[in-house]
Amino acid sequence: MPAYLILPMITAAAGILAGAGFPAFASAALGAAAAVWLARLRHSGDFYLCVTLDPDAPDSGMLAEALRTAVRRLQHKQSPVTLRIAALRASPHPRISLSLTRDGDLEVLCDRKRPCALGHPGLWIADHPLPLCIPHMRSITLHLTPAARERLRVTCGDAAFVTHNGWIAILLIVAAACAFDIPSLLAAALGFAGQAYLLEHHPERPRRQRKIKPH
Predict the structure, then answer these.
(1) Given this model, what pLDDT does residue 212 score?
(2) pTM exceeding 0.85
């Protein structure tokens, strides 16, 4: 689904559920827009890096060097780094993934090629599944943050920006809006919740990068 259609669809659905009046639609739009703003604000202060691999011959060594650059930046500045990886290609092969060696060093695995190790054993704290497969039809974003003992913690870009307690608060707001018959509040809560959920699951693509289609 194109990204520009998501916000209108969320606004329409939330507005209809809340009463289909103009105040409901306006509140739903504001709630959905607030979710987008909070999602972008979460990592707005990060240093941004982007690596784009050749779709015909993706180089795992290039990806490993981009990861080393991100690590050096984080170690030098002790501030978060956002790394966007685009390995867009029509075929899922060669398959590219990130994994940890027995000594805790990150390595980039690519079909029929020698693994490329990061060269920093014991540094990577993975708050994501391992091995982490790099998708072939969309990009993926990694967020690197400093951790204890000069290590770094890594999460995927699709990690939830609304916490468990945050979802409980949204549920309570929805319940209160229904109990006291406040359509605008209900629409805003539904708009925010719907947009937040889709932002966590919608594929992230590089800016101005269209989806690759098989020939």
Answers:
(1) 42
(2) no
